[in-house]
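Sharing a chain and its predicted structure for anyone who wants a worked example. Both blocks are below, sequence first, C-alpha cells second.
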Amino acid sequence: MGGVDKSKNIFVQKCDQCHTVERGGKHKTGPSLHGLFGLKIGQAPGFSYRDVNKNKGITWGEATLMEYLENPKKYIPGTEIIFTDVKKSIERAHLIAYPKKATNE
C-alpha cells in the first residue's frame, strides 16, 4: 500500500480541511473520521447528516471507501461532499491507509 507518511500527506492535501482523525477530534464541514472503520454511514455522534447519506445503509471499510472515493457523488447521489474524485486506485489506497491507522489509535 505505501508508507504512512505518504498516506498522511495525501490525506492532508485532500481531506484535512473538512475532516479530523484524532480521538476527540471536532467535526468540521465533514464529520470526524475517528472510529470510521466498521461504522455505519451517517452515524458519527454529533454530526448532522443528510438523509441520502443516512439511507445508503453501508458500513465503512476499505472496500466501501475504495468505491466511494473513486466518485463520491455517483456512490451517494445527492451527497454534498465537496471532493474531487480519486481515480487512481493506488492513490485511494494511500488515502485510506492514514485514517485507518490514525483512527484506530
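Comments welcome. The helical segments are 4-14, 51-54, 62-70, 72-75, 89-102.
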